[in-house]
Write a structure and sequence with these properties.
- The protein is built from eleven helices and seven strands.
- Helix 1 packs across helix 11.
- Strands 3-4-2-5-1-6-7 form a seven-stranded mixed sheet, sandwiched between helices.
- By secondary structure, the chain is an alpha/beta fold.
Length: 249
């Protein structure tokens, strides 16, 4: 079993849509058992995946020792994918979580990681774009972190802060991948080379292109593979998923 956190402290980098597309390919194309953990109060992954939104979200399991993660579990329309849903209460969870004692926090985190430890091949955590103590500790219970990056000088500069956080909590930095990539844009090509020069093999060789196919597929509540699997953007998610499998096992 491999648990992977998808995180960037900048929003709008296609984090959730990438989690959904990667989960689909792992589960429905490769037949792996996948759990998506929606840790974002926007609930986008929950709304996309869940057969029925639960009244109890994953945030309740983090602040209440008596609540089992199973109460936030929902099946999906996909045979091999489950989701731990969130509610809007997730937006207040960080403060509530921090008010617990250190022992309570550790116990609740262990309860969560213990739930998925022997049931799934891959666990994908969709984390909010917020760098706080809860985010750090959720990262700390995973096997590693993947960072989606939209090219831009400020975004690249921000990678250092993200990797610093990953190292501080003792997690592995699996790597970053470029989203919304425009290969015809000279600036994108230059920034891509800059990122590769700075991070070397920590940059996935597969870049996800800027594409209406990806945007429209999510609007139709479909993954890019379901929507138009024969076209480039969907194939890129397959290639990215294959890279992830090679890196994490």
């Amino acid at each position: 079993m491999k648990s992977i956190a998808f995180f960037n402290n900048k929003g709008g980098v296609s984090k959730t849509s990438s989690v959904l597309n990667i989960a689909y390919i792992l589960g429905e194309v490769y037949g792996r058992k996948v759990l998506v953990v929606d840790c974002d109060g926007q609930q986008n992954a929950s709304r996309f995946l869940a057969d029925e939104l639960t009244e109890v979200g994953v945030e309740k399991t983090l602040i209440n020792a008596a609540v089992s993660p199973r109460e936030a579990l929902s099946s999906t329309r996909y045979e091999h994918i489950d989701v731990l849903t969130s509610t809007t209460d997730m937006n207040r969870c960080a403060e509530q979580f921090q008010s617990l004692s250190e022992a309570e926090r550790e116990k609740n985190l262990s309860k969560l990681s213990g739930f998925w430890s022997d049931q799934y091949d891959y666990v994908l955590l969709d984390l909010p774009p917020a760098l706080n103590s809860l985010t750090e500790q959720l990262i700390g219970i995973t096997d590693g972190v993947i960072v989606p990056v939209e090219l831009g000088s400020f975004a690249i500069q921000g990678i250092a802060k993200v990797t610093e956080t990953i190292n501080r909590v003792g997690a592995a930095f699996i790597g970053c991948f470029i989203s919304k990539y425009d290969k015809k844009n000279k600036a994108d090509e230059e920034l891509k080379k800059l990122l590769e020069n700075n991070l070397g093999n920590k940059v996935f060789s597969t870049a996800i292109p800027y594409s209406n196919i990806i945007r429209n597929s999510i609007n139709y509540k479909m993954t890019a593979y379901e929507y138009m699997h024969w076209l480039g953007p969907a194939k890129k998610y397959v290639e990215l998923t294959e890279e992830i499998i090679r890196k994490v096992g």
